Amino acid sequence: MSEPVIQSQTRGLESARQLSGASWRSALPQQVLTWLPLSLFFPVGVMYAGVLLFALSLLISGDYARKWLRVRSHPMLPPVLALTVLSIVVALFQSRPAGEFWSSFWHYQTYLFLLPFLAVGSGLGLGTGTGTAAAANQWQARAQLVFFGGAIYASSLFYLAAAGLLPTTTLFRSYVVYEGNKSILLGILLAIAAGWMLHAWRWHKNHTLLRALALAYVVIALLLFAKTRTASLIFILLCGLMLLRNVTLNWRSMLALSVLGLLLAGGVKYVADLPPPLTCLTKVMVAEQHLNPAAILLQRGVCTVHQIRNFNQGKQIGEDGMRLEIYKITGQIIAEKPWSGHGIGNWLSLYHERAQGMMSQAMTTPHNDYLLYATELGAFGVFALLWIWCRQLLLARKMLAGEHQERAMLLAMLGLTMMVGGMFNAILRDGVFGMAFMILLAIPLAGVTKK
C-alpha cells in the first residue's frame, strides 16, 4: 500500500475519532439530565450534586452559540425574565430586611435554573439537527422511564417503612418520618409519576399487565403511605385532566359531570354533619389509635372538611389545620399594600408580628405561593407568576398540534400540579420543591421553540 493512501486512511481515522469525541461531549448534558429525575427520590443533597454535575457537563460540551440560541428562542424565556426584572425593581425600591433578603430574593429566581436545562434541546445531542421523531425524543423518553423507575423505588421504600423494615437513616428518613416539605415533595412526585404513567399507557396503547401493575403499585403507595393530602388531590386532578382530554363534551358527559359534582357536594355535606374525629394528626392516628393506612386516609379527609367548616364558623382549629389561620392573617397583610407589596423577605417579620400567641406563630412560609408573591411583590408579582404558569399550559395546548404532542400532556400535568400545589405549599419558595420541578419541566420543554 502506498504512502499517500496510508496517510489518507490515517487522517480519516483521526477525523472519525475527533467527531466521535465531539459527539460524546455534545451528548453529555442530555445523558446527565436523563438521570437527574432519579435524584429527586433521594436526600436533597443528591439532587443538588446532580445539578452541579449537569452544569459541569454543559461547560464541557461546548457549542455555546447553539445552546444560547435554544434558550433565546424558547417561549419560556420572556415570562421568566419578567419575574426576575420585577424582583430586582421591588428589591431596589422596597425595604430589604437584614438576614432574610438575599435568601428570599434568590427564591424568586428559581425559574432561571430552568434555562440551562433548556439549552440542551431535543434529541441525542450530537449536533446533527436531523433524525426521526422517535430519535428527537430519545433522551426525554429515557428520562421518563428513569422517573418511573424512581417512583417505583420510592413506592417500595414506603411499603418497607409501613412494614417497619426500613431504618431511620439519612438515606431513608423522609420515607419513615414525616419531614415537612421533603415528605410532601415525595408524595407529589408519586402523583406526577402516576399521571405520566397513565398518559404513557394510553398514548402507546400497550395496555400490558406490567404497566397496570406498576401504576397500581405507585398509586397505592401514594394514597395510603405518602401521608400528604395535597399529593392525593393532585393525582385526582391529573386523572380528571386525562378524562377531559380524552372525553368529548356532549350532553351525556356534561350530565355525568353534573351528577358527579352533586354526589361530591352531598358527600361533603354528609361528612360535615358527622361528629369531628378525635384527632387530625397522623402521628397520633398511628401511635395511639393504631389506624391502618386506609383509615388514616379517610380520617384525614374528614378532618379537612371539619377544619374548613370550623374556620368559616370562627371556631378553634387544630394544629393540622393551621394553614387556614396563616391564610387569613396573610390576607390582612396583603390588603395593606395590595399593589406594591411589602418588599422581598418581609413576610416573615410581618406575620410573626401579627400572629403573636397563635398556633401558627412559628411558621416560616405562608404555605401558599400566591399569597407570598402578593405579600412581597404585590399584584404585579402574582401576575408575573401566573404568566409563567399559564404560559406552560398554553404551550402544552400548542404542542398537541405539533411534533412534541406526546410530551404535551406531561407539561400540562406539571403546570396543573404547580398551580394547585402553590395553593397549599411553598412550591417556588422552597428550593426542595423548586429545583425538582425545574428538572421535570426540562423533559417536556426541551426543544420547544417560538414557531
UniProtKB/TrEMBL annotation:
<feature type="transmembrane region" description="Helical">
    <location>
        <begin position="433"/>
        <end position="449"/>
    </location>
</feature>
<keyword id="KW-0436">Ligase</keyword>
<dbReference type="InterPro" id="IPR007016">
    <property type="entry name" value="O-antigen_ligase-rel_domated"/>
</dbReference>
<dbReference type="Pfam" id="PF04932">
    <property type="entry name" value="Wzy_C"/>
</dbReference>
<keyword id="KW-0812">Transmembrane</keyword>
<feature type="transmembrane region" description="Helical">
    <location>
        <begin position="208"/>
        <end position="225"/>
    </location>
</feature>
<feature type="transmembrane region" description="Helical">
    <location>
        <begin position="370"/>
        <end position="389"/>
    </location>
</feature>
<keyword id="KW-1133">Transmembrane helix</keyword>
<keyword id="KW-0472">Membrane</keyword>
<feature type="transmembrane region" description="Helical">
    <location>
        <begin position="76"/>
        <end position="93"/>
    </location>
</feature>
<feature type="transmembrane region" description="Helical">
    <location>
        <begin position="254"/>
        <end position="272"/>
    </location>
</feature>
<dbReference type="InterPro" id="IPR051533">
    <property type="entry name" value="WaaL-like"/>
</dbReference>
<feature type="transmembrane region" description="Helical">
    <location>
        <begin position="40"/>
        <end position="64"/>
    </location>
</feature>
<dbReference type="GO" id="GO:0016874">
    <property type="term" value="F:ligase activity"/>
</dbReference>
<feature type="transmembrane region" description="Helical">
    <location>
        <begin position="231"/>
        <end position="247"/>
    </location>
</feature>
<feature type="transmembrane region" description="Helical">
    <location>
        <begin position="184"/>
        <end position="201"/>
    </location>
</feature>
<feature type="domain" description="O-antigen ligase-related">
    <location>
        <begin position="218"/>
        <end position="385"/>
    </location>
</feature>
<dbReference type="GO" id="GO:0016020">
    <property type="term" value="C:membrane"/>
</dbReference>
<protein>
    <submittedName>
        <fullName>O-antigen ligase family protein</fullName>
    </submittedName>
</protein>
<feature type="transmembrane region" description="Helical">
    <location>
        <begin position="409"/>
        <end position="427"/>
    </location>
</feature>
<feature type="transmembrane region" description="Helical">
    <location>
        <begin position="113"/>
        <end position="133"/>
    </location>
</feature>
<feature type="transmembrane region" description="Helical">
    <location>
        <begin position="145"/>
        <end position="164"/>
    </location>
</feature>
